[in-house]
């Protein structure tokens, strides 16, 4: 078929390029020899570094024209960010249904696990991931509501800080709102303290920010688990041969770039700054290095290692489903502009289509 011919052509092109480029490699590198564990760690690190690419792809509000900067700086209203989030939802759904689950079911069938129902075990792990992520978000979002329900501790903090700054006496012009319908809030800074505001509107906004922050951390957790599986795959491929390892690294890298753009958008939506989001993405890369080390350490017992880690892919799929359908999609459903809805749905389809393309042409 045309698809197989295209895949074969890409393989031949890659082998040709590797052969030609080999003539330009410095002699001292060629004399080092092939060390699988070193190449495994390098490949995993390269994939992890793709997490900072979105910083150069997604516009920076501070360097954008005035109108675009205002639009990009407010995640709740940013049309650009909503398009990126739609792309992220499509990428996550495509990754789950076109990559993670099919690969899991193929492995289950090949291993003969699950008796007459090889997909049952995988399905249970998907549900486990989905439900665990739901419970974690519910629990930690509940903690964000504690201050809203009881404003008194905030007022105590305000009084304490003001007493400290004024030498034991409250300023004459201080008017507290303790016990009223509104609630006080305070921020402590190196030079003293100041009232950040009062009233339910501020608290509601902070509560929403806390809820979204939890969603961002859940996304980082899911990505860490996903990167762990990438490390396993890269190291396993380099243990077979150099060519297999390079092919696997390039395939996963190209697969991850659009994924990382979507993840970066989710972190921005969750209240992360651009730099904090980039640092968080790099931290998740450590899970990829850990996966590579596990694969290298268990290289003498490949079958046993695969059996012990076969739950990771379906569990990650469940986490991705929660992030896409429970955390991000509801915000997109609130869109009232029909034209923006069409663009967001198109971005979602683009994310799915790109994941399908990567799966067909790079992971055959």
TrEMBL record:
Q: How does it sit in the membrane?
A: Multi-pass membrane protein
GO biological processes: intracellular zinc ion homeostasis
Subcellular location, record wording:
Membrane
Ordered alphabetically, the record's keywords are: Membrane, Transmembrane, Transmembrane helix
**Superkingdom in the source lineage:** Eukaryota
TM stretches of this protein: 34-58, 83-102, 122-140, 282-305, 311-333, 345-362
State the Gene Ontology terms under molecular function.
Answer: zinc ion transmembrane transporter activity
A family per Pfam = Zip
Instruction: Please indicate if the UniProt record lists Disulfide bond as a keyword.
Output: no
Could you confirm whether the keyword Transmembrane helix appears in this record? yes
One GO CC annotation: membrane
Query: What family does the Swiss-Prot or TrEMBL record give for this protein?
Result: Belongs to the ZIP transporter (TC 2.A.5) family. KE4/Catsup subfamily.
What is the official name of this protein in its record?
Putative zinc transporter
* Record organism: Anopheles braziliensis
